[in-house]
Structure formats: structure tokens, C-alpha cells
Amino acid sequence: MYPIVKKRILAPGIKLLEVKAPDVARKAQAGQFIILRIDEPGERIPLTIADFNREEGTITTIFQEVGYTTWHLGQLEEGDALLDFVGPLGRPTEIENYGRVVCVGGGVGVAPIYPIARALKEAGNEVISIIGARSRELLILEEEMRKVSHELLVSTDDGSYGHKGFVTDLLVRVLQEKKVDRVWGIGPVVMMKAVSEATRPFGVPTIVSMNPIMVDGTGMCGACRVSVGGETKFGCVDGPEFDGHQVDWDLAVQRLRMYRDEEARAQAFHQEKRGGCQCR
Amino acid sequence: MSMPVSTRKTPMPSQPPGERIRNFSEVALGYTEEMARQEAERCLQCKKAPCRQGCPVEIDIPAFIGRIKEGDFAGAIEKVKEKNNLPAICGRVCPQENQCEKYCTLAKKGEPVGIGRLERFVADYQLSQGEVEPPALATPTGFRVAVIGSGPAGLTAAADLARMGHQVTVFEALHVPGGVLMYGIPEFRLPKEIVQREIDYIRRLGVEIRTNSVVGKMVTVDELLESGFDAVFIGTGAGLPYFMGIPGENLLGVYSANEFLTRTNLMKAYLFPEYLTPIKVGRRVAVIGAGNVAMDAARTALRLGAEKSMIVYRRSAEEMPARKEEVEHAEEEGVEFHLLTSPVEIHGDEAGWVTGMTCIRYELGEPDASGRRRPVAIPGSEYRMEVDTVVIAIGQGPNPLVLQTTPGLELTKKGTIAADEETGATSREGVFAGGDIVTGAATVILAMGAGKKAARAIDAYLRQKGEKGNG
Ligand SMILES: Cc1cc2nc3c(=O)[nH]c(=O)nc-3n(C[C@H](O)[C@H](O)[C@H](O)COP(=O)(O)OP(=O)(O)OC[C@H]3O[C@@H](n4cnc5c(N)ncnc54)[C@H](O)[C@@H]3O)c2cc1C
Ligand code: SF4
Ligand code: FES
Tens digit of pLDDT for each residue in B238-251? Predict the structure, then answer.
């Protein structure tokens, strides 16, 4: 069992759990993910590592309640424990001194971009970070991001904080003003696609972190297939990071919809049993 | 004594096809005591016992069958367990028709003795008698061995090493041990409770099993060796699914057999929504391939509610690599066999869901390297097949996670580990390997055999190392 040692509510529907998993924490690096299962009937879900503490032996995950499993996860409290927690999985971010880099995080995607920005800064890069959310109350990790960036830009869709509009508006502005050597974009698939399209005319290498449906996370099933540059890759072992200019985005969007009906069914079934699930 | 001996095997009681395709319970129900003794009567107790040559772990077949004949079931299982740690599993899944039963004297004139069925009978008999007492262990040696992977190869190596007095830790990537026995082979063919009981037995030998431990990610082979393990056995199997590389393979509704079976078996998708892992099965399911994996997928599809389940295979019935019994069971259950045909493209609708396949017909040409006649595509024979789910079961390769992170570990051209056939020794000192990771996808019993041989070799390696240390 893997005990939850800390829980925070970062924004409505966005929660942070710090989980004791010393073997995972020992090896975790920016860009990697874990797979967890709450209990015996539970499904295995991947979550990107938002932080790790090797001394304490803990892994921090941040997630948005979008379906039954993430809602259930959000109901757990400090002292509860997860049945399974495996990692670190996937390839770590390739951290080097590229020069000037931009880290773009959208919504809950700010969480995985945080350790990447930190590692890039430690490696000597000039880090410009752009984070965004639908509205101010949904914006997470602003202070943390400010600390690991030389410059932090913020946008909200509704203009309740920072620039009114999308992170890509700010990204294009930066690209127009400065020479940028590399861009990371993590967030919803539509946002990562938009980031990739925004950087393409500037010819700036752009790395995205794909979040396909997974089962094992070790290359054993192929559920996580993504098409990159016309080649089929396994998101869990070949990724999760890929060249955003090469990703087949339409396929990625399609594949994420595979179990939409079943998710609704599961939610309805368990909602009745547990009494209440506020997510959508 | 002079009971008329049938030329046919005592039939195996089983769930009727119409009933069983609506549940996941075991199909073959197992012999009763009477049936087992009747079948044991058929054995001629041949002096030379040709059947034994066909057994990869050299079970003393006439001896255990002789004890069944006498009604000494406890003695019979003891005899089997001298050579085989997992008889309840082997009795169910071994391809006996290519092994012991192929060489049985009776097979010359009629059906061979049902050796597999008898093995299963005595193993189940023992399990029904309550907890199995583990045998006495050798004096602890103080050596520690890490076993990577808990499929039949890893479990066998672990059990034997524990008996020899070594301290064994098994590292398993998934959340339950058992490998293919748990995630691949379906409940209706190999009940998971039986697998777990065999594994409990191995735990009671003192073996520690650490699940959720992906070697190559959480820890490397070199780190294991540095952290106090004196030897490592790699039994990571052939878990990497192959796809065909045809257009449309990433459409919604196309599964690898591994994913299809893992969702169903390991994650219990057949109990959805009680269990939370979903699976999507359409009305018309095509399974590409004709091995055990393909038969399991085709039969699983029926149980998940498919109206039609079809095996689509490039070669002819004769070349199908599946166990004979699995093919028969699939036929009884109404699985359709579309032979000498193979898809060249999968089609989908606007939302990306599979709607059909274009297939091309084949004919058999000259024998190829494997000795089987090579299938040759017939130009212009393309036709469309309406399906909404496609399961690709054309084979699996070695998973590279351990291999890529173990410098100096020599591989073969196929990407499997190059290991000595008799000892499992690899190019790295103290690192041994066996099972599908060495042979490519093979069988449970061969993986077990490799685990056994490697355990012996590891024991010898450690003792020689220890003497050196002491002297
Ligand atoms: C659906 C299906 C049906 C089959 N039917 C039959 C049959 O009827 N009869 C028969 O004889 N054979 C059958 N086989 C083949 C047989 O199951 C295999 O040959 C056998 O299981 C191989 O054993 P193994 O121990 O080498 O590997 P596996 O059983 O594959 O076990 C390997 C284990 O290693 C783990 N692992 C992998 N990588 C790592 C890592 N990096 N770190 C930690 N753990 C890791 C895996 O999770 C797995 O648990 C079937 C196979 C399949 C898939
Ligand atoms: S070959 Fe057949 S008949 Fe002879 S001992 Fe073996 S099982 Fe019995
Ligand atoms: S999640 Fe199964 S192969 Fe990637």
C-alpha cells in the first residue's frame, strides 16, 4: 500500500496528493509518470509526476477530477492509501542547456511543466514560462512557477487574471520578440496542438507530453498508441514526450474518446453506490 | 484386471458450448476419481515409457499414472511434483499433443493416454485437500537472488532456488504475479484462483514477491547486483505486441491481443462497471492469427457479447499453431475460421471507429524456413469483410526495458537474450535468463524448464563463488 501523506485542494476540482513511494521517488525525473490503482476494482490510470522528494521518499501528483476514478481519488484523505503505485515510467525529459526555452502549461498541465521548468533552469537555460487556465480560480502553481522561471506570463480565457485569451497568444508574442531555442507545451490535447502550430512557422523545436489511454504503462499492450511522423509509437515507453510538429493530433483526439460512453456508465453506476460525484 | 480398454480417451466433462459462451467459468470441468482411474487403466506402463521423452521436465509419467490406478492420488501428485512445481497449470495449458501424448504407445493405434488430464486431476485433488505443505528447505546459504518477472519461468526458478536454501526476491512489473498466466490466458481456460494458489505455495517457500516493480525503470540489473543480490535471473517474457503495419491499425476498435486479454483477465473488464476497466466489443469481431493467443481472444470476444467471432489466418488449418483442444473448443463455441486470408487495410468511419477490413486471399506455395508451406497472396483477390472490432494476435516480441538498461547483455538478432540453453547463463557474469525472453513466445512448460535449469546453474554458480569467498 502507498499512503497519502499530504493532500491539498489547489482549485475547484484540481487536487494535489503526495504519496509515499520511496522506490519511485529515488528514480523519478522530470517528464516521467506513474500509474496508480486505488483499490481492487479500480482501473490503472497514469498521472504525470508533478514533483518528487527523494529524502522523504514521496511523489506529488496533481490531477483534475474528470471521471469517476479521478473523482474517487479526490475523495481520499491524508492517511488513506493507494493499492498500487508504479513508476517512474516513460522517458524523462531531455534536460540540457539549450539557451532560451519557453515552458507552456495549460490548466492542470502546469503541474507536469513545473519540474521540467525547474530542471531546465538548473541546467542553465533562460526559462520563460507561460501558464494559463480558464479563469483565475483554476490557475495553479503560480508562485512555484515564478520561482523556477526567469519570466512568468499568465493568461486566462475569461480575462479574470493576466492576459485575456490563450497561452498561445503570449507564446507567439515571445517568439516574435526573442530567439527561442526550444518550447515545451503540456496541457489538454487541443492546447498542445495549438502550441505546436504556433511554433511551427518559427521553426522552434517543440516538445509535448502525450496523455493517451494506458493500461500497463510498460509497453505490453499498445493501448497508448500515438502516431508521430507517420510511425506508430507507444506513448508509455517511447514517450510521453514527442515532437509536437510530428504528432497526428486528430488521431490523438479520437483515441482519447474511445471509452467516453463507458466512462459515463461507470460514473452513473458508482455514483449511485457512493452517493455523489460532482464532476460534470 | 481384464476390463476392456478403450482406444479412446475418457471424455472430459465440460460445460455445454451454448451455456459456456455466456460465462467466464472454466470450460473443462476435470475428471472425477472414477474417470481418472478408468483413464489410468489405459496406460500400458511401458518399460521404456516413450511418453517421458516428450515431457520437457521429464515427469515420471508411468509412475504417477500407476499410482492413480491404485487410487493413491497423494502419491501420484508427489511423483509429479518431483519435477513440476505447477501441475494444476500445466495439466490445463500444455500442448500435450506435441509432447508426452505424441509419443505415447497408444497413440499409434488410437488416442494416447490423457496424460494432461490426469496431471490436472492429481493436482486438483491435492488443492482440494486444503493447504499444501511446503517441502523442507535446504539450510539457508545466505545468498540472495533477484528474479525479474513472475511468469512460469521466474516462478519456477524462484521456487527451486528457495528450496536450495537461497533467499529469493521476485520483481514483477504488474500489480499481480503470474505473468501470462494472469494477464493472458483467460479465466475460462485457467482459473486465476488456481494460479494464485500455486503462487501462494511458492510464497510459503519463503520467496518474497514485489509487485509494481518495473526493472529498468525503478531499479536496474546493475543496481540489484550492487545492492546485495549475488545473482539475477531474467524471465521477463515476450510481452511486446506486434502490429501488422497496415493502414487503419490505430482506429478505434483495433486492439492488440495483449490489450484485449489484459483488460479482460487482469483488469476484469467482463465485470464492468463493477470493475472500472472498460472494454469495447462490437457485434462482429475479427481476430488476426491462429495461435493460442488468437483462440483465447476469439473465445473471449464471444463471452463479452460478440454475435460473431472470426479467426482470420493467412495459412491453412494444418499450420494453426494453437493447441488442438483450443481449436476444438473454439469451433464448438461457434468461432468461424476464415483461413488463407489476411487483412491488408482496416477501414473506419468519421469518428474513427472500425467499420470493416479489406482482406486478400492466399494459397500455399513451397515450404519456407519453418518447414510450413509459405502462404502466397493471390493477386486481385481482395474482398471486404464487415467487422467492428479487430484483435491483432500475430505474435509478441521481447520487451526492451530490461535489455536496454543492462549494458553488456548480449542479444540475438531477434532481440531476445542470448543465453546458454543448458544453464541460462548470459554474457554478463551472475546474470541468467530463461523463458520467452530467450526463446521468443513459446510455452508455459518450456519456460518452466528453462527456469529449472537456470536455478540449478545459479545454485552451482553461487556455491562456487561462496567457496572462493571462504578460501
Ligand atoms: C493469451 C496467451 C495464451 C497462451 N496459451 C498457452 C497455452 O495454452 N499453453 C502454453 O504452454 N503456453 C501458452 N502461452 C504461452 C505461455 O504463456 C508463455 O510461453 C509463458 O508464459 C512464458 O513464460 P515466461 O515466464 O517466460 O514469461 P511471462 O509469462 O510473459 O512472464 C513475464 C513476466 O515478467 C514481467 N516483466 C516484464 N518486464 C518486466 C520488467 N521490466 N520488470 C519486472 N517485471 C517484468 C511481466 O509483467 C510478466 O509478469 C500463451 C500465451 C498467451 C499470451
Ligand atoms: S507411453 Fe503411454 S501407455 Fe506407455 S507408459 Fe507412457 S502414458 Fe503409459
Ligand atoms: S500502456 Fe500498454 S503499452 Fe503503453
Answer: 999 999 999 999 99
CA–centroid distance, residue B96 to ligand 2 (Å): 13
Minimal-distance CA residue of chain B relative to A221 = B259
CB-based contact (8 Å) between A222 and chain B? yes
Query: Each residue of B403-457: pLDDT tens digit?
Result: 999 999 999 999 999 999 999 999 999 999 999 999 999 999 999 999 999 999 9
Q: Where would I find the beta strands (DSSP E) of B247-350?
A: 254-256, 284-288, 308-313, 336-339, 341-348
Note the ipTM here: 0.93
Gyration radius of chain B over CA positions: 23
Q: How confident is the model over B356-384, as pLDDT tens digits?
A: 999 999 999 888 887 888 899 999 999 99
pLDDT-derived band at B1 (thresholds 50, 70, 90) equals very low
DSSP-assigned letters across all residues of B390-420: EEE-S-EE---HHHHTSTT--B-TTSSB---
Q: What is the CATH number of domain A2-89?
A: 2.40.30.10
Q: How close B149 gets to chain A, by Cα (Å)?
A: 13
- Which residues are bridge partners to B389 per DSSP? B285
Boundaries of CATH 2.40.30.10 in chain A?
Answer: 2-89
pLDDT at A276: 55
Within 8 A by CB and 6+ apart from B26, the residues are: B15, B187, B188, B189, B190, B191
Q: Give the ligand 1 atom nearest the CA of B238.
A: 30
**What pLDDT does residue A275 have?**
62
pLDDT per residue over A67-99, tens digit each?
889 999 999 999 999 999 999 999 999 999 999
Q: CATH 3.40.50.80 region(s) of chain A?
A: 93-206
Ligand 1 midpoint to CA B302 (Å): 23
Shortest CB distance from B259 goes to which of A69, A221, A237? A221
DSSP code for A179: -
B277 and A227 within 8 Å at the Cβ level: the answer is no
For cell 495461435, name the residue.
B291
**Contact at 8 Å (CB) between B185 and B265?**
yes
Beta-carbon contacts of B142 under 8 Å, excluding residues fewer than 6 positions away, are B167, B466
pLDDT of residue B2: 46
Nearest residue of chain A to residue B223 (CA atoms):
A27
A81 touches chain B (CB under 8 A): no
CATH class of A93-206: alpha beta
pLDDT of residue A76: 94
| Contact assessment for residue A199 and residue A183, using Cβ atoms and an 8 Å cutoff | yes
How far, rounded to the nearest angstrom, does the alpha carbon of residue B47 sit from its chain's CA centroid? 31
Is B272 in the A-facing interface, judged by CB distances under 8 Å?
yes
| pTM for the model | 0.93
Dump pLDDT digits (tens) for B215-273.
Answer: 999 999 999 999 999 999 999 999 999 999 999 999 999 999 999 999 999 999 999 99
pLDDT score of B130: 81
Q: What does residue B354 show for φ and ψ, rounded to 5 degrees?
A: -60, 135
Say which of B173, B259, B267 has its CB closest to residue A218: B173
Give the list of residues 6+ apart from residue B232 with CB closer than 8 angstroms, or none. B145, B146, B147, B148, B221, B224, B225, B430, B431, B432
